[in-house]
Design a protein that fits this description.
The complex is a heterodimer. By secondary structure, chain A is mainly beta. Chain A contains no helices and 11 strands. In chain A, a hairpin with a 4-residue loop joins strand 9 and strand 10 (104-108). Chain A is globular. In chain B, 35% of the residues are buried. The chains are: A mainly beta, B mainly beta.
């Protein structure tokens, strides 16, 4: 089946620094990837939709200059949290759209736990 | 209005019972519907996908879709303690893929 690799799984960074999270589709080409953020005991909130070769589409309220998304190839999308602050500490998850023969499917990475100190 | 609505629960059922989880969505153009299970601190894992009206069964799980009512449900038969988790309904339409807030299910031994 479709596999999405996300790393790092955990990262601790100092306030004011930037952190890059990678999401790779290992056995399929992903023209569309999604980035989510999940705070404790809350649901996944869609941050942005990333399309290969074009600019990402951000959800309302998500700062595009703070959360930089790059989808330069059919197998890799990256999310960079710039000038991170403690309130950015969260669980970040990527998802890639694929086709399973019956219809579209969405495969998730294992998530990245970001802690900003 | 949220794109996808779910009762947050918790929903408690005894072992062996049927658990019924419900979800409504707002976008009539939605085309694909999914149920995911998520354990604390982990990524969601797909249980079932459904694309057309009616029922779809897979083992102990049955997904039901009613596009006219904009309603999706998941039935879990013979519930087991290992089914205890948060169940997320997700709805997709082209480049949008939204989750509900999830329903926490507790299956009591």
């Amino acid at each position: 089946g479709a596999v999405v690799s996300q790393h790092p799984s955990r990262v601790i960074c100092k306030s004011g620094t930037s952190v890059k999270i990678e999401c790779r589709s290992l056995d399929f080409q992903a023209t569309t990837m999604f980035w989510y953020r999940q705070f404790p005991k809350q649901s996944l909130m869609l941050m942005a939709t990333s399309n290969e070769g074009s600019k990402a589409t951000y959800e309302q309220g998500v700062e595009k200059d703070k959360f930089l998304i790059n989808h330069a190839s059919l197998t890799l999308s990256t999310l960079t949290v710039t000038s991170a602050h403690p309130e950015d500490s969260s669980f970040y998850i990527c998802s890639a759209r694929n086709w399973d023969g019956l219809g579209e499917g969405y495969t998730f990475g294992s998530g990245t736990r970001l802690t900003v100190v | 209005q949220k794109e996808v609505e779910q009762n947050s629960g918790p929903l408690s059922v005894p072992e062996g019972a049927i658990a019924s989880l419900n979800c409504t969505y707002s976008d009539r153009g939605s085309q694909s519907f999914f149920w995911y299970r998520q354990y604390s601190g982990k990524s969601p894992e797909l249980i079932m996908s459904i694309y057309s009206n009616g029922d779809k069964e897979d083992g102990r799980f049955t997904a039901q879709l009613n596009k006219a009512s904009q309603y999706v449900s998941l039935l879990i038969r013979d519930s087991q303690p290992s089914d205890s988790a948060t169940y997320l309904c997700a709805v997709a339409n082209f480049n949008k893929f939204y989750f509900g807030s999830g329903t926490k299910l507790n299956v009591k031994p």
